[in-house]
């Protein structure tokens, strides 16, 4: 039986990362049981109960990268499976339709912030500069779930900090503010950012 063992964050897909962030060490009676769950998630194994103990221990030795921070390099362009994708918006400059599309999926599926990376990518990563197409959402979500987390992690954090990726010709709006001149962010994004930072502290110990 061949087992693919990740040895760095670049080996972890978005799907695996999302599953990883849902594992709470406090839910397990022992560190070993927690480690077995990590093996199942990170090696895509349904059940490790029939595995020899020495094999599990050998696999776990490769997981020291979990104690390190995820590389946060910002990638504007992502090459994946022979296709080119670009980030076409910043979180501060989403259209109402794009933001509602993200929030609708999150509400319907009752997702946490950490479980929505694939949703965000499916809406904001575009091929050939195309506009958002709701008809391709499911296809893109499944595809981007297989992206290495290192391909999107830095960019998403950059977005959350108010960054802008692409500068494309857009309609210009003239806004006249009455009294509030402080930029407001979505409470949902801010809350999610705080949660992911707290969870990474748990994983990193």
Description:
This protein has eight helices and three strands. A hairpin with a 2-residue loop joins β1 (77-80) and β2 (83-87). It has two domains: 9-67, no CATH class; 77-171 and 186-204, no CATH class. It has helices at 14-20, 31-42, 53-60, 96-109, 117-124, 137-144, 153-160, 187-204; strands at 77-80, 83-87, 125-127. Strands 1-2-3 form a three-stranded antiparallel sheet. It has 205 residues and is mainly α.
Topology:
Layout: H1 14-20, H2 31-42, H3 53-60, E1 77-80, E2 83-87, H4 96-109, H5 117-124, E3 125-127, H6 137-144, H7 153-160, H8 187-204
Antiparallel strand pairs: 1-2, 2-3
Helix pairs in contact: 4-5, 5-6
Give me the number of helical elements. 8
Structural class: mainly alpha
The geometry reads as elongated
User: Which residue ranges are poorly predicted, with pLDDT under 50 across at least 5 consecutive positions?
Assistant: 164-189
The topology string of helices and strands comes to: HHHEEHHEHHH
Q: What helical percentage do the residues reach? A: 40-55%
Count of distinct structural domains:
2
Strand count, sense and closure of the main sheet? 3 strands, antiparallel
Find the count of extended strands (DSSP E, 2+ residues): 3
Name its key features.
single chain; 205 residues; mainly alpha; 3-stranded antiparallel beta sheet; 3 strands; 40% helix; elongated
Brief summary:
The chain has helices spanning 14-20, 31-42, 53-60, 96-109, 117-124, 137-144, 153-160, 187-204, and strands spanning 77-80, 83-87, 125-127. With 205 residues, it is mainly α.
